[in-house]
Amino acid sequence: MRNFRLSPATAITAYAAMIMVTGVSLQASDADHKIEHAAKTSYNFKTYLKDDNIKVDSADGVVTLTGTVAREYHKFLAQETVVGLPGVKRVDNQLGVVGEQPAEHSDGWITMKVKTVLAFHKHVSATGTEVNTQNGVVTLTGKADTLGEKQLTGEYAKDVEGVTEVRNDLVIAKSNRRTMGDKVDDTSITAQVKSTLLFHKSTSMLATKVSTLNGVVSLNGEAKNAAERDLVTKLVEDIHGVQSVHNRMTVR
Questions:
Q1: What is the CATH classification number for the domain harbouring 217?
Q2: φ/ψ (deg, to 5) at 223
Q3: Where residue 229 falls among pLDDT bands split at 50, 70, 90?
């Protein structure tokens, strides 16, 4: 067997290279841990996705989502929440949907979408509103704190795809609801904005670019007219965590 001896200079170079590689590896691992932690502690994961079984794994900024969710739109919300986190390069969404899902455009599907739309808006109550749909006609029951809240709940329900009519039977009565005290992170806000614009039929076809910094949402893209652009601003302003909206959308 031949013995190999490294010169002092070669040994130092090899050691330095090993330290450099190890350092880069540790930095990458630390960054991945931060991404995983930020996803799991985000507002959306703690609020809307808390009952789902989602595993977040990051490797060099490529995030893989595995596990199961209860609703199809939860897949989209989870992905959009993670994709906006610092350091994320790409998201591989392998989430599966468990349980029986309502058929598209069915009454159950419409009810689910109405409840989802109400959940993202802060000036209405998703928990205080019961939603029932029959042949596309949505009936709202429960309590609203003010007449304005009742009317706004009806407006939002009417602007969901498939809804033909809204019967607003909400009763105006103080419910002593507590406002959500958790701080809403920017990536959760952006994901909520994208979901909201997708679920409202008045804005579902708009190609709107969304970014958020310290609760300030910036919107870019095109609107057919000024009324459509103003509607986007109105919808986004009423999303949890939004402090203000900079709407830079241009009118065709």
A1: 3.30.1340.30
A2: -125, 150
A3: very high
Query: What is the rounded CA–CA span in Å between residue 63 and residue 34?
Result: 12
In which domain, by residue range, is 59 found? 10-97
Q: Report, as an integer, the average pLDDT of 19-46.
A: 81
Using CA atoms, how far residue 185 sits from 84, 102, 182, 192, 215, in Å, is 11, 31, 9, 11, 8
CB 35 within 8 A of CB 64: no
For 75, other C-beta atoms within 10 Å of its C-beta total: 20
Return d(Cα 192, Cα 122) in angstroms, integer: 11
**Residue whose structure tokens are 């808006």:** 121
**Claim to verify: residue 28 and residue 90 sit in the same structural domain:** yes
Look at 148 and 17; give whichever has higher pLDDT: 148
CA distance linking residue 246 with residue 216, whole number of Å: 7
How much is the pLDDT for 5?
60
Structure-token pair, residue 239: 């999303």
Cα(169)–Cα(218) distance, integer angstroms: 36
Residues 36 and 85 in one domain: yes
Q: Looking at 65, 97, 129, which one is the last position of a domain?
A: 97
Residue 78 lies in a domain: yes
CATH of the domain at 87: 3.30.70
Distance CA 54, CA 74 (A): 10
In a domain, residue 120? The reply is yes
Residue type, 69: V
92 and 28 within one domain? yes
Lowest mean pLDDT among 35-39, 122-126, 134-138, 149-153: 122-126
One-letter identity of residue 252? R
Q: Global pTM?
A: 0.83
The CA distance from 180 to 204, in Å, is 27
